[in-house]
Write a structure and sequence with these properties.
Layout (H helix, E strand, L loop, with lengths): L4 H9 L5 H5 L1 H4 L6 H6 L3 H7 L10 H6 L5 H5 L9 H12 L4 H13 L9 H4 L10 E4 L1 H5 L6 H14 L4 E2 L9 H5 L3 H14 L5 E4 L2 H8 L11 E4 H10 L9 E8 L2 H6 L4 H10 E5 L30 H8 L4 E4 L2 H14 L8 E4 H6 L5
Parallel strand pairs: 1-2, 1-3, 3-4, 5-6, 5-7, 7-8
């Protein structure tokens, strides 16, 4: 229930400019979340009144559950404050108060009982891919989204990535006992389940030297946050980094360039949390003649709305999940490329209904889909 020293200092360092609220996707989508007030200013007076930092109970719980954990608020702060408090409020609600929103109760149960978000006992995709052995260069980490068909069309994207690896003669294999990276549990405050999943996965990765994944959420957890608890003996590379490197090193030859108008959506976890911005653009520019940037790009990207575990949330009154989709529809893009399975899924769902009558729907492609169309075999 207590703020850290830095969090308390942040509250009194705020210059009240409101940039955090301006960039918040939940706020822009019409939700109640207002980071400037809910996460900062609303806690100032309670600290002054009590002379204590035991004030997490004063955070608006509903606002805390709306947060996509995209970190846009923190990146926008001119004085370097760590704005977001959703992790603290959710941890308090789940671990202390036992107040778990109904839509997340089944999610947590699935993670605890089967090690994946869907409660699945097998994966047809994983069954058809090579199994990892220590002589292979990479563990191909699938993640729950790809492994259990959260968007069935994304299976083709995974196949395209494996085709790129095969063409470049890169050896890889999947883990037979891969469990969820723990990202949903971690972002939704269920820290005990997160620890359970992490410990299991680290046992499976003991022989790995390199891991590659198409999921930035998994990349953040397996490649970065696990390192907060254990010494990691492997290196994590997002697939956009691997593809870009293969092109640069001449291991992947490009046969031609696409003529379609292409833009790129930066996933929050990839651009802000992993600071991977150049690699996907390098690959797109090598395979596209007409590439342009969206108005908000790079580390200033706008969240697709699926972060913070909100992929599993029932639709509320806000339109967090539509703000970015609307930007894409209103651009001149014929194709939007992304490097995140959740962004891929959100746009697959959102672009069609938003497309005006008589206008061609923008195609959604993972970077692997776009590159594989233009490689020389």
């Amino acid at each position: 229930t207590r703020l850290t020293k830095n969090q308390a200092l942040d509250i009194f360092s705020c210059v009240e400019c409101g940039r955090c609220t301006d960039v918040c996707p939940a706020h822009r989508g019409g939700g109640i979340l207002d980071p400037k007030n809910h996460f900062i200013l609303d806690l100032r007076q309670p600290i002054l009144n009590s002379g204590d930092v035991n004030v997490l109970n004063d955070i608006n719980v509903g606002a805390g559950w709306e947060c996509t954990t995209c970190q846009a608020c923190t990146y926008a702060c001119p004085v370097g404050n760590q704005i977001e408090k959703s992790d603290e409020i959710r941890r308090l609600q789940v671990m202390v108060e036992g107040q778990v929103p109904q839509e997340y109760q089944k999610l947590f149960m699935n993670l605890q009982e089967t090690g994946n978000t869907e409660g699945a006992l097998k994966s047809s995709l994983a069954d058809n891919l090579p199994k990892f052995t220590p002589d292979k260069e990479y563990v191909l980490w699938l993640g729950c989204f790809a492994r259990y068909n959260l968007d069935p069309t994304f299976t083709k994207s995974v196949e395209n990535y494996t085709k790129i690896l095969d063409t470049a003669e890169v050896s890889y294999g999947v883990l037979e006992k891969e469990w969820c990276s723990g990202d949903p549990a971690n972002r939704l405050g269920e820290k005990m389940t997160y620890q359970l999943l992490m410990e299991h996965n680290l046992e499976q990765l003991v022989a790995a030297k390199k891991v590659t994944t198409m999921c930035p959420h998994c990349a953040v957890n397996v490649g970065k946050e696990y390192g907060n608890y254990h010494s990691l003996n492997y290196e994590m590379e997002h697939h956009t980094q691997v593809i870009s490197s293969l092109i640069d090193n001449g291991r992947l030859s490009i046969s031609g360039k696409s003529s379609e108008a292409v833009t790129y959506h930066d996933p929050c976890n990839l651009s802000r949390m992993l600071e991977v911005v150049d690699a996907p653009r390098n690959a797109i520019k090598a395979t596209a003649n007409d590439f342009f940037e969206l108005e908000e790009s790079g580390t200033n990207t706008l969240c697709c709305g699926a972060g913070g575990g909100l992929w599993w949330k029932k639709e509320g009154s806000g339109r967090t999940h539509l703000a970015r989709a609307e930007q894409i529809v209103e651009s001149r893009a014929e194709t939007v490329v992304t490097g995140c399975n959740f962004c891929y899924g959100m746009f697959n769902q959102g672009l069609g209904p938003l497309t005006p009558e008589g206008k061609e729907q923008v195609q959604v492609k993972d970077l692997a889909d776009f590159v594989v169309e233009n490689i020389a075999e």
